[in-house]
Specification:
Elements (H helix, E strand, L loop, with lengths): L10 H51 L10 E2 L3 E4 L2 E4 L7 E2 L5 H5 L16 H5 L31 E3 L32 E3 L2 E4 L15 E5 L70 E5 L4 E4 L2 H9 L5
Parallel strand pairs: 1-6, 3-4
Antiparallel strand pairs: 2-3, 5-8, 6-7, 8-9, 9-10
């Protein structure tokens, strides 16, 4: 009598199928992750192009001026889109936290009220996460339990280059703008200080100061609201400017003096982060895969893949 095979799979057949599925997942997962990173980089670059347009709109409405990287206060008040910024008390319409470059550009990219840099409205501050300034999918906003919306509202994942006067030969190697190293370097940075009579220190630049716009960064993927590239202390081997990127671990922001030779670029945002050093405060300076987006002053966006390009985009030379 002919026997009929029972319905269903044998244990061996099930194990073979599971093995095949596992093998396919192992083969496809890296490709899917790579595709996801590539899509994130494209979305990030698109946001930076829109931010570049906002800079142009601001320039057109403000007599050729660029927004301040940040407006610091010693005294006086400053009105911006219905918010009064000052050095006094923090209320619904005033804030002790000065406006940042993205607050100046807010009206050109969002129809909702974005709120001040750090004032007390959680709903207004939460709107910031919906704007293009926080739209890089590879950036996790720093958590901040004391903040109005649970995140640090001054660190959008993009930073502005506030050093338009760097050239390949100025200032001399080893010095940088914005430090108290003596005239004429110490006040050449786009973070003006405001008092009751107006700006009294540092610069409020016009956009045409970002010379060589095809080569000079205007904004990009950074760990801080400001784009920095510190000079190396010496040019002797081993390369002293080759330092690891800081690991901010989401719960902490960039604080204190920047590390010697360090930049604020997030080198690996759209690539692959290297391993961490002991203590987990810093990534290894080698390994990983660099890929980070930069908006240049002429409006184009490029994905850069090495460390020298970051320095050149800010300081117009590498090293120094």
């Amino acid at each position: 009598m002919r026997q009929h095979r029972p319905n269903g799979f044998t244990l061996v057949e099930l194990l073979v199928v599971i093995g095949i599925i596992g093998l396919l997942i192992a083969i496809l997962l890296p490709a899917l992750q790579s595709a996801r990173r590539a899509a994130g980089a494209v979305k990030c670059a698109s946001a930076l192009r829109e931010i570049g347009n906002a800079f142009k709109f601001y320039e057109g409405e403000n007599k050729g001026y660029a927004p301040a990287g940040r407006l610091f206060f010693d005294a006086g008040t400053y009105q911006l889109y219905g918010i009064t910024y000052n050095a006094g008390s923090n209320t619904a319409t005033t804030t002790t936290n000065a406006p940042y470059w993205f607050n100046f550009l807010a009206k050109y990219v969002t129809k909702t009220k974005m709120g001040g840099a750090g004032n007390g409205s959680a709903s207004d501050s939460a709107q910031q996460l919906k704007s293009i300034f926080w739209s890089c999918p590879a950036w996790d906003p720093y958590t901040n339990a004391s903040g109005p919306a649970g995140f640090n509202v001054t660190q959008p994942g993009y930073g502005m280059n506030g050093f338009p006067e760097y050239t390949s030969s100025y200032p001399p190697a080893g010095l940088e703008l914005g430090e108290s190293s003596g005239a004429p370097y110490d006040q050449q940075v786009a973070t003006p200080r405001w008092d009751a009579t107006g700006v009294h220190a540092n610069r409020w630049y016009k956009m045409n100061k970002w010379t060589h716009p095809q080569e000079r960064a205007l904004a990009g993927d950074t760990l801080f609201w400001f784009m920095e590239a510190r000079p190396p202390q010496t040019n002797s081997p081993p390369n002293p400017w080759l330092v690891g990127e800081q690991n901010l671990a989401n719960g902490a922001t960039w604080t204190g003096a920047f590390q010697a030779n360090q930049t604020t670029f997030d080198y690996y945002r759209h690539g692959k982060y290297p391993s961490l050093k002991a203590g987990n405060a810093e990534f290894q300076p080698t390994g990983g895969k660099m890929a980070y987006n930069v908006l240049f002053a002429d409006g184009h966006v490029s994905t850069l893949i090495d460390r020298p390009s970051a320095y050149k985009a800010v300081r117009m030379r590498f090293p120094g």
